[in-house]
């Protein structure tokens, strides 16, 4: 399992949603999960905080061999990118003095922005399922942008308020 | 800045990165740039490299920052701090989820948080967009033609972003 996740960690670009179909194929081939379990894995990977691909490895490992399994699968997933980034980060300290490297990074940043923009659009379609949700997004945008609260606190407070609202509306029904 | 403060920051961001790595760009901006640790320019160089290498972007950013600030071991410490909350939360959540799969709380948290997270993600898009706008003002022809080219290729190369990133690198070396 470590080797399979190590391979996944080496080849998967883009992270998150783009990686999920590849992880699914590998997990089903090795019979770590069955097809009908997959939805549960995806939902929980997104519900828990953190990188989706790492959560996914965590869950699949956990189902196969408990906590040991989740640690093994996760290590396989994160060790390759950690090695690559470490080498780059050490190398780039000197490389960043070269104007050509800076120029290449500037060009690549434009592409990163466009990839990000595309991801934001597909996320927006998912998030704004009803019109009245739009002002809530704008509220969190405004509060964080004008630094009334840091984005972390906004998410934490929202989480508490959502749970409190569901509790309150269910109490009303009873 | 002490290592302990950084560990706490990564534990905090790791506990709140709901719905995947995109939101961590905004959360880490707060830790790195708003706090004055890194310049915005360097942060975007980090993001560019994190997006161009394999692995989840949040993991790559955590490792990069740790190595850059504290050396080899620092990269391991920041990355582990980022992952730790999600490991523990999944171990706790999984049995609960199995018992209450259709709980209205789970549905509401998923849908509701997504709306709030989207607002936080929009901030990162606005900030990055302003940087792109600067490039458009300085180098209008090169930047806009790169954007149009990438925009045209994006639907077909969605799953091969590294090809687009290579085009961006070549464009950058030639025209920027």
Structure description:
The complex is a heterodimer of chains A (174) and B (176). Chain A has helices spanning 2-11, 20-29, 38-47, 52-95, 99-127, 134-145, 151-173. Chain A has 174 residues and is an all-alpha fold. Chain A has two domains: 1-98, no CATH class; 126-174, no CATH class. In chain A, 39% of the residues are buried. Chain B has a domain at 3-103. Chain B is globular, with a radius of gyration of 19 Å. The model of chain B has no long low-confidence stretch (mean pLDDT 92). At the A-B interface, helix 1, helix 3, helix 4, helix 5 and helix 6 of A face helix 1, helix 2, helix 3, helix 4 and helix 5 of B.
The gist of it:
The complex is a heterodimer of chains A (174) and B (176). Chain A has helices at residues 2-11, 20-29, 38-47, 52-95, 99-127, 134-145, 151-173. Chain A has 174 residues and is an all-alpha fold.
Tell me the structural class of chain A: mainly alpha
Uncertain runs of chain A are none
Label the overall shape of chain A: globular
Total number of β-strand segments of chain A? 0
Q: Give the topology string of chain A: H per helix, E per strand.
A: HHHHHHH
Instruction: Please tell me the total number of domains of chain A.
Output: 2
Radius of gyration of chain A, taken over Cα atoms and rounded to an integer in Å: 20 Å
Total of DSSP H or I helical runs spanning 4+ residues of chain B: 8
Mean pLDDT of chain B: 92
N-to-C CA distance of chain A: 48 Å
Pick out the low-confidence regions of chain B: none
């Amino acid at each position: 399992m470590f080797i399979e996740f190590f391979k996944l960690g080496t080849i998967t670009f883009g992270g998150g949603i783009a990686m999920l179909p590849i992880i699914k194929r590998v997990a089903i081939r090795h019979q770590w999960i069955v097809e009908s379990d997959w939805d549960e894995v995806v939902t929980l990977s997104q519900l828990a905080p953190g990188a989706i691909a790492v959560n996914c490895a965590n869950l699949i490992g956990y189902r196969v061999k408990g906590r040991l399994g989740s640690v093994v699968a996760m290590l396989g997933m994160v060790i390759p990118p950690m090695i690559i980034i470490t080498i780059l980060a050490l190398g780039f300290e000197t490389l960043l003095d070269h104007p050509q490297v800076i120029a290449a990074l500037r060009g690549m940043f434009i592409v990163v922005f466009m990839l990000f923009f595309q991801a934001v659009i597909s996320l927006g379609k998912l998030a704004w399922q009803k019109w009245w949700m739009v002002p809530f997004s704008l509220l969190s945008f405004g509060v964080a942008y004008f630094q009334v609260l840091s984005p972390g606190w906004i998410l934490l407070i929202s989480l508490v308020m959502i749970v409190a609202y569901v509790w309150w509306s269910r109490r009303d029904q009873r | 800045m002490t290592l302990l403060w950084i560990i706490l920051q990564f534990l905090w961001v790791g506990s709140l990165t709901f719905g995947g790595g995109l939101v961590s760009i905004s959360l880490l901006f707060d830790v790195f740039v708003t706090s004055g640790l890194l310049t915005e320019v360097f942060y975007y160089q980090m993001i560019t490299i994190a997006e161009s290498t394999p692995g989840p972007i949040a993991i790559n950013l955590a490792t990069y920052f740790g190595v850059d600030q504290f050396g080899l071991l620092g990269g391991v410490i920041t990355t582990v701090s980022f992952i730790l909350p999600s490991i523990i939360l999944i171990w706790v959540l999984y049995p609960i989820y199995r018992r209450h799969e259709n709980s209205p709380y789970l549905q509401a948290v998923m849908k509701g948080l997504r709306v709030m997270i989207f607002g936080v993600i929009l901030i990162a898009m606005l900030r990055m967009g302003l940087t792109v706008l600067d490039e458009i003002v300085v180098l209008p022809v090169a930047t806009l033609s790169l954007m149009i080219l990438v925009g045209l290729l994006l639907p077909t190369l969605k799953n091969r972003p590294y090809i687009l990133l290579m085009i961006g690198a070549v464009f950058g070396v030639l025209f920027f």
